[in-house]
Amino acid sequence: MAEAQFSNELLIPPHFDPYKTADVWRVSYQQLAEGARDWASQYHIQPAGNDALKIALIIIDVQITFCIPGFELFVAGRSGSGAVDDTRRLCNFIYRNLGMLTQITATLDTHETVQIFHPIFLVNEQGAHPAPYTLVSVEDIQQGRWRFNSAVAKTLGISEEYGGRQLLHYVEELKRRGKYAYTIWPYHAMLGGIGHALVPSLEEAIFFHSIARNSQADILIKGQNPFTENYSAIGPEVLDDPDGRLLAQKNESLLQKVIDYDMVIIAGQAKSHCLGWTVSDLLTDIRARDASLAGKVYLLEDTTSAVVIPGIVDYTDAADQAFQKFKEAGMHLVQSTDPIANWPGLKF
Fold first, then answer.
1. Residue closest to 315 by CA, chosen among 325, 324, 323, 306
2. What pLDDT digit, counting tens, does each position of 189-199 carry?
3. 209 phi and psi angles, rounded to 5 deg
């Protein structure tokens, strides 16, 4: 039964235009649904509930804010067109393997204006906010070069004193835990804004899969806590506040997918940040449960790029080193263009 599930890759449906992965448009759901039903009938695509081998595809933050040129945090990679090319390859992968993917999960980085990594959270002695991409050190906070913006305390329901303590605690915890330096990001992935939405090409592919396979997509929201960044879909960068109170709960649903599914494929953005930290946290959880579970995880290496801001920072090497560690831990690095049936470690 499982071998039959892997017998053939499918053609790409005619509605998909690979040259439009950098474009924004309204998805025509009803028309797409009718096409998906016809496609399933034509190619004898069975409901996902019939799968002998259960495969989960987890897509991290393929949103307009990160993946469309001209938006706030486009992940260009070193090529300059990284996320656009990645999305094209990812959509092709979904359509070619439509009959094999049991469920698709997509995470959405989700932010509001007043959060610790946005410029409004900090001010200097002149009352000015830091520019996007400013790196803030422990010393910057201790010496008062940047301090908590007391004007936002009331809207956050905290005191000015607590805001200052949380800020210092946050930057100290990032350093202690070996995380990236405290970074001020442009306002991005704003809840309710166009940048928050999935890239239309990918939104089409996920919806098409849902209809053709009778499989509800799993959409996960992350990143709304005002006091911590949340690169990882599993947990925040800093877990507690200066008084030892928990800031946010860890999300154990991705670990549960590794337990429940036969294969878990991970793709998305950015290799150096949200995807990379998600995989790192997932590996930590796997090791705490059963290290052999790492062999179920497959990273689509050609559908993700690192954050590169010319003249400011390039995280490519760090991301590549992290992926090598994931491989050494038992996870598999694979290409979207290779047939799943040929991937290493696959057991029918």
1. 306
2. 999 999 999 99
3. -60, -45
